[in-house]
Specification:
single chain, eight-stranded mixed sheet, 32% helix
Length: 200
C-alpha cells in the first residue's frame, strides 16, 4: 500500500474509532494490520509469501458493540476520493467472508446537498452490504416508500449510482448512541480533521 493511502486509511479509521468510543461504544480492532503490525513493512512479494488465509487477510477493521454487548456490528472503514459502483463491488470478497457488514465511508469530495451542506452527514455516511444470490447488495433508503431496502449494486449504471450516496445512512442512524452527540461539535470536529486529507 502506498504511504499516502496508508496514511489516509489510518487517520480515517482512527477518527471513526474515536468518534464511536466518545459516544459510548466499545471498539475492537480486528484488521490484519493490527493483528500483524509487521506486515506494514513488507513488500507485496514478502506479504504474499506469508500465505495468510483469506479470513485473516480480509478481516474487517473494527467490531463495535455497546457496553452491555446487546449490540454488535462488524465495521469496515474507508476513505474515498469518489463514490462509485466500482468501489462497492470491490468490497465483494470482504463481504463474502463476514456474511455482511456495515461500511463507514468518508467521501472527501462529496458534492453540496440542500439538507447536508454544512453537516457531517454530507461527508461521513455508512451503508450495509451483503451477498445475495451470487451478487453484492447495498441497503439504501427507497425514495418512494421511505423505507430501507436492499438493491443489487449491478442494477445501477455508474452514473445513476452516484446519487445513491444520499440514500445511505447517517452515522446516527446506524449507531444510535451518536444521537447524543449530534448537537455537539464532535461530528463536525471529525469532519474538519478528515478534510485535511484532501490535500495529501
Amino acid at each position: 500500500m502506498q504511504f499516502q493511502n496508508r496514511l489516509k486509511k489510518e487517520i480515517t479509521e482512527g477518527a471513526v474509532k474515536a468518534l464511536l468510543i466518545d459516544a459510548g461504544y466499545r471498539v475492537r480492532h480486528t484488521g490484519i494490520e493490527r493483528i500483524y503490525p509487521e506486515i506494514e513493512f513488507l513488500s507485496l512479494d514478502e506479504y504474499k509469501s506469508l500465505n495468510l488465509n483469506i479470513e485473516k487477510r480480509l478481516a474487517p477493521d473494527l467490531i463495535v458493540s455497546d457496553k452491555a454487548n446487546h449490540f454488535e456490528q462488524i465495521v469496515e472503514v474507508k476513505y474515498r476520493a469518489d463514490w462509485s459502483k466500482k468501489f462497492v463491488i470491490s468490497l465483494r470478497r470482504q463481504v463474502e467472508t463476514t456474511s455482511g457488514c456495515i461500511v463507514v465511508t468518508f467521501w472527501g469530495n462529496a458534492p453540496p446537498h440542500p439538507s447536508y451542506d454544512l453537516l457531517a452527514s454530507r461527508f461521513l455516511r455508512c451503508f450495509h452490504v451483503r451477498m445475495q444470490e451470487g451478487g453484492i447488495q447495498i441497503q439504501l433508503l427507497d425514495l418512494e416508500s421511505k423505507s430501507w431496502k436492499w438493491f443489487s449494486v449491478e442494477s445501477f449504471s455508474e452514473g445513476d449510482f452516484l446519487a445513491t450516496w444520499w440514500q445511505t445512512m447517517r452515522l446516527t442512524q446506524a449507531f444510535p448512541l451518536l444521537e447524543n452527540k449530534k448537537n455537539s461539535s464532535t461530528l463536525l470536529d471529525t469532519i474538519t480533521a478528515l478534510s485535511g486529507l484532501l490535500s495529501i
